[in-house]
Specification:
Radius of gyration: 21 Å
Number of domains: 2
Largest sheet: 6 strands, mixed
Strand content: 5-15%
Oligomer: single chain
CATH architecture of the largest domain: 2-Layer Sandwich
CATH topology of the largest domain: Endonuclease, Chain A
Helix content: 40-55%
């Protein structure tokens, strides 16, 4: 039997694979036995162990469940976040960990359709643009799109969270990727609004000073009804769990929803915008 020697110091990805192999061998399991417990193929487990395949968030969480390491200092999810850190804003990997467990999500964004609502083509255009500007490497662009795909898949779980989204009108009016990409993106927004667990609204330009938020914000309601806020600047993201600052932000979000267009009016605006794309 061929056994590939691993160098965990060569990269975070290799360290993840070496840790997976070490934990598996400590439990006395073969790759086939671990694969069965994780409900993955043995080839997939082998590829992650040897660093040929990047772990996904779902894979990391499944490994933590099988090995009983969820929440531990050496958890697989924590190592997954370390791998992703290079391509994501500071604070964002930690946010993703909470997002996948939230029972309600509230999102407001300006200028760009938020990630959870992006089509793969729209997301790829944004990532490619960042590469051309020299902001990230092609490898980091690939990771960004991969993380986004995983986040969207997490929302398709058997008991999905309620998702409330308010878009500044600029998200709808600003063409990204040309006519075909933007038209498909707007169609996707209409489909998103039709889901039973979502609410989509647009904050129109003529709202003026009544728009209560001026920066993008994400608010997560957890199973225990605690609320976590995540905000971003150009350089970094920040998580806030303090009720004294998070609850006023939640109130501000509700004020924004009250002033925004209804979902029916929002869908009408999006469909009108799609017809006008050149």
């Amino acid at each position: 039997m061929n056994r590939k020697e691993l160098n965990p110091d060569s990269s975070p990805q290799a360290a993840f694979g070496a840790h997976l192999r070490s934990m598996r061998e400590t439990h006395g399991w073969t790759q086939e036995e671990l694969a069965k417990l994780m409900e993955y193929s043995s080839a997939h487990v082998s590829s992650v162990e040897t660093g040929r395949k990047l772990s996904t968030l779902r894979f990391a969480r499944t490994a933590d469940r099988v090995f009983g390491t969820a929440g531990a200092q050496e958890s697989f999810e924590r190592k997954w976040r370390e791998i992703r850190q290079g391509s994501l804003l500071e604070g964002f990997p930690e946010y993703v960990g909470y997002e996948g467990r939230a029972v309600e999500l509230r999102v407001f964004d300006i200028g760009i359709v938020p990630g959870l609502l992006q089509t793969p083509e729209y997301a790829q255009v944004l990532a490619d643009s960042a590469v051309r500007r020299g902001a990230i490497t092609p490898e980091q662009a690939t990771e960004r799109v991969s993380v986004l795909t995983e986040r969207q898949q997490e929302l398709q779980r058997s008991r999905p969270p309620m998702v409330f989204v308010v878009l500044d009108e600029s998200c709808v009016r600003r063409t990204v990727g040309g006519r075909d990409v933007m038209s498909a993106q707007l169609d996707h927004l209409v489909q998103f609004a039709a889901r039973p667990t979502t609410m989509l609204q647009v904050a129109p330009f003529d709202m003026g000073e009544r728009r209560s938020l001026n920066l993008p914000v994400h608010l997560l309601t957890m199973a225990d009804r605690s609320v976590i806020a995540y905000t971003e600047s150009q350089a970094q993201g920040s998580l806030d769990r303090e009720a004294t600052s998070v609850h006023p932000l939640l109130t501000t979000y509700h004020q924004l929803q009250a002033e925004a267009l209804s979902q029916a009016a929002t869908v009408a605006m999006i469909e009108e915008a799609r017809k006008g794309i050149q």
